Amino acid sequence: MTRPPEASKSPTREAVARKEQLLRRFTVAEFWIHRTTAALMGTAIASAAFLYLPTLGELVGRRHLLVIVHEWSGIALPLPLLAGLLSRAFRADLTRLNRFTPHDRGWLRATLRYRPHLSGKFNAGQKMYAAVAAGAVLVMIGTGLIKWFPKLTPLFARTGATFVHDWLALLLGVLIGGHIWMASHDPEARRGLRTGFVTRSWARQHHALWEKNNPGDHRVDDDPAKDL
């Protein structure tokens, strides 16, 4: 009898695909900056909702406590970002977010026409979101301080601060809701923030210029799907 041919010992395509190279996207410091900022922002928004909507306020009842939580969570919002300035990687990402380059303008034009376009580590939409959110937080803190210490400003300033604070809070809530909705549809992006690494194929698809300029600082994952 003839012996059956031995199975090939060379790795299959599936095995090769499972061992996909990962690129470092964020550091541990950046993870905690994002997580802490998100916790403070969530606390400020939730406490504002309980203060603004009577139906929700009745569920808690302790309005004075809600006011204290809202004030201090809001005033503490810049602290994680300020502490993050000690991280070189975070400072480098801030520089990237603050630079609007020609390929960002091309990305915006292509996106409005539903066409793909190359982007760096952060695309133009992410840069615009970061700029608007940062500016809104600063204005919210300023108008919040006017409401916190009403005796320091005249009536027209307090009235204007209340108007700006309330409507800007609504805009910021919509922006953050959109941010969470988009993140919920991209598990690889969430993995990148949670573990610090993304697959090279994802980076090539969504941030091709960044992927091209980062041949190193990677590891090989036996099963990328397990962290999704």
Automatic annotation (TrEMBL):
Keywords: Cell membrane, Membrane, Transmembrane, Transmembrane helix
Keyword Membrane set for record: yes
Bilayer topology: Multi-pass membrane protein
The UniProt record lists the keyword RNA-binding: no
Phylogenetic lineage: Bacteria, Bacillati, Actinomycetota, Actinomycetes, Kitasatosporales
GO terms under cellular component: plasma membrane
Protein name per its UniProtKB record: Formate dehydrogenase
Superkingdom: Bacteria
Membrane spanning stretches: 32-53, 65-86, 128-147, 167-184
Localization per record: Cell membrane
Entry-linked InterPro entries: Cyt_b561_bac/Ni-Hgenase, Di-haem_cyt_TM
GO BP, one annotated term: respiratory electron transport chain
Domain Cytochrome b561 bacterial/Ni-hydrogenase: 26-186
Pfam families: Ni_hydr_CYTB
Molecular function via GO: electron transfer activity
Gene3D superfamilies xrefs: Transmembrane di-heme cytochromes, Chain C
